[in-house]
Specification:
Strand order of the largest sheet: 1-2-3-4-5-6-7-8-9-10-11-12
Largest sheet: 12 strands, antiparallel, barrel
Helix content: 10-25%
Order of helices and strands: HEEHEEEHEEEEHEEE
């Protein structure tokens, strides 16, 4: 069940979506738009099929400078200014870029042993999360704030069984047999605030957007909702040629990602560390309103990522490999998954 961009495990329905999205992007005469397609899978250079086993997301963003968005933009800009609690004084007065984005996606989770129909009580339950999201981004030269609202559904209505086993049919692999024990249907809602500040940068060139450069970005955030509630934070480092003036590629998560149109080509390496203090994770804790299979989660989880990005004008490609620490106490092995993102920025 999986992928979509090319080689390993394209997901059913996502490949046509990719072609449609990029056709829209390329044919559109509008500017200041971006279209991003994400695919995450634990098969990508990890070769497993367990836990967070697949994620897919499509996002579209546009400037709030359009007349129909002007009133909304002013209100959201005021809100963003009120939330600059971590902002250093040096950021004040920088030009502000306002964006509104819309996304939809799906995450799929399974236990390690998927070829049994028996209930597995010492591993995470089968679950899927199907959602739509709207996000407001307020970006200055060295600061990015994101407020995102996600609405969706957990359980059979999220179509995890159909997507995973439908793809297994396509590639001639046995079905995951335990979906009868998945979490039950439950509406989900979450609100996230994400703050990123570029606190250090350096370059070998006196000209902007040329030569070798690096930057270090601090990130903090909070997400509150019945699917997940947590605090998180950590640093990110980028280094490479013609480093873009954005905040780099990201995994599929609330408040993730930003893209800037650049001149010429850019190639850079990036890495990050993110610590997450977890109060609730429905995909480990089980349903909020029903008695379902659960495992005892760990309150502190870490993500360590490294990757390579290539930007060529309006086309942005990135690959990230992510290492995640143990998420629950009965977990025997740490998880690794890959993330591919393809963006068109106009």
């Amino acid at each position: 069940m999986k992928r979509q961009v090319t080689v390993v495990k394209p997901r059913t329905g996502i490949v046509p979506l990719a072609f449609a999205a990029f056709a829209i992007a390329l044919l559109s005469g509008c500017v200041n738009q971006s279209f991003t397609l994400y695919s995450e899978n634990d098969r990508y250079f990890a070769g497993t099929d367990r836990h967070y086993t697949n994620g897919a997301k499509f996002s579209y963003s546009d400037q709030l400078a359009h007349p129909e968005f002007s009133a909304l933009g002013r209100k959201l800009d005021d809100l963003g200014r009120q939330l600059r609690v971590f902002e250093p004084p040096s950021v004040n007065g920088q030009p502000v870029d306002l964006k509104l984005s819309f996304s939809f996606g799906q995450d799929i989770y399974t236990p390690t042993e998927i070829h049994t129909a028996a209930l597995i009580t010492d591993d995470r339950p089968y679950a899927a999360w199907l959602y739509g999201a709207v996000a407001f981004q307020r970006q200055e030269i060295d600061l990015l704030q994101t407020i995102e609202l996600q609405l969706g559904v957990i359980g059979p209505m999220a179509l995890g069984r159909e997507i995973q086993n439908g793809f297994h049919d396509l590639i001639g692999v046995a079905h995951a047999e335990g979906w009868g024990h998945q979490l039950r249907n439950e509406p989900g809602a979450s609100l996230a605030y994400d703050w990123r500040y570029r606190w250090l940068r350096g370059s070998t060139s006196t000209q902007p957007d040329t030569g070798f450069a690096f930057d270090v970005i601090r990130r903090y955030g909070v997400t509150v909702g019945n699917p997940r509630t947590y605090l998180h934070g950590g640093p990110a480092l980028r280094a490479g040629w013609n480093l873009p003036d954005d905040f780099g590629p990201d995994l599929i998560r609330s408040g993730g990602g930003s893209g800037a149109l650049i001149r010429g080509a850019s190639v850079f390496l990036f890495g990050s560390a993110d610590a997450r203090l977890v109060a609730r994770d429905a995909f480990l804790d089980g349903n909020l309103f029903h008695h379902t299979s659960t495992v005892r989660k760990r309150p502190l989880v870490g993500d360590f990522s490294a990757g390579l990005a290539f930007y060529l004008g309006w086309l942005h490609l990135a690959y990230t490999q992510n290492y995640r620490t143990l998420e629950f106490y009965a977990q025997k092995q740490r998880d690794v998954f890959g993330s591919i993102s393809v963006s068109v920025v106009r």
